[in-house]
Structures are given as C-alpha cells and as structure tokens.
Amino acid sequence: MTRSLCAPQFESLLTPFDRRVIDGQDGTIFGLDDNYRLVYMNSGWFQFAADNCGEPALSRDWGLGRSIWEAVPDILAPFYRQAYAHCLVSGEPWHHDYECSTPTLFRRLHQTAYPLREGAGLLVVNSLVLEQPWDAIKGVPWPAASGDYADSNGLVHQCCHCRRVEHLRVPGRWDCIPGLIARPGTRTSHGLCPVCLAYHYPGDCDG
C-alpha cells in the first residue's frame, strides 16, 4: 500500500520535509492543522490500519478534515490536548512512548509531534521501538471471550494500549482476549485499563 493523502493548504507546511520519505515510511505519520483536523496521512497510516483490522473503516470514515479528537478516548484527550497545544505554542517537538500490542506481539512505539512554522500545524510521527512475541506469558491460558466482557448494550470495553478487555463481573480485572484483539468489531469502546493509565500517564489523567 503506497497511497498518502494531503490537503492542498498543508503542502507548503511540509517543505522542510522530504515528502517522498515521509510518504513511504512504514510508521504511521499524520498531519494536523492548528484546529487539530487531519490534513495529511502517509502510506503507513493506511498500512497500519490494514494490518490491525482497521480497514476499510479507516479509509471510509477518516478522511481529510476529520478532528483528531473524535478518535482519542475521553480519558486521554486532556493529556494529548495539553501536549499538542504546548508543542504548537512553544515551537518545540514533543515526545511520548506508548504501547500498542497485538494478539501475538508486544509492541512499544514512540511518538514525536513536530511543530510546523508559525504554529500552523503539527506533523506527528509514530515509530516502532520494540516488537517481540508474548513469550513471557507463554503457557498461561488466555480466557475465551464470553458474556462476561460485554455490557448490557453489547459493548466491549478495551484498553487502547495493552488491548486487554474489562471483565464486567470482577471489578478491576482486565483480560487479554486474542479473538477480540484480532477482530474487535464495531461494538468496542476504547479507554485505558488502570495499569496503562498509571504507567503511561502518571499524574496526567484522572481516572
């Protein structure tokens, strides 16, 4: 997959960067204007979605002009709003490490938000830092998906970092359900489990 999308008004802001390089990067790269609307997506954006069961929904629903805040879970919105706003005002890049695992792989990624000239927008680059099989928990049986994980509306609550799913009958329990990670479906609500909230955002989010 080699396509990328760029709003015409964003083209000039990318002149410090080599478009051929960022367009073809494996990592997910996207651009935001100063109102945090999507104005650029590289080929890695679409490839990551395809590799993680996000297509064709992403291409259909997330075109140019869509607000990034519609994709950010409510519990994380204050953290990213503050970080991106500071980046725009200060003119300094912002860095953050986070987890985005799959049913078979532990993955840690690094995000860098680059402020573009005169606070007109951001170029946000996500890079893979670590990827390894879940060997550390080999032999520990993962529970199967059941009615214990869907609420009365049929909604499953999944951590957007570690991908574990909240067990609704046992308070505080979050389980890894490979089937729900590989095929999350449309009835999934994304938030943060208590461990990821404390580890990735210490003191930044109230949950």
Q: Which homologous superfamily in CATH is the superfamily of the largest domain?
A: PAS domain
CATH fold type of the largest domain: Beta-Lactamase
Number of strands: 10
Distance between the termini: 38 Å
Give the strand line-up of the largest sheet. 1-3-2-6-5-4
User: For the report, how would you describe the main beta sheet?
Assistant: 6 strands, antiparallel
User: For the record, what CATH class of the largest domain applies?
Assistant: Alpha Beta
Model regions low in confidence, pLDDT < 50 over at least 5 residues: none
The quaternary structure here is single chain
User: Number of helical segments?
Assistant: 7
Order of SSEs, N→C?
Answer: EHHEEHHHEEEEEEHEH
Q: What proportion of the residues form beta strands (DSSP E)?
A: 25-35%
The overall average pLDDT, rounded, is 83
Share of residues in helices: 10-25%
At CATH level 2, the architecture of the largest domain is 2-Layer Sandwich
The total domain count is: 2
Helix/strand structural class: alpha+beta
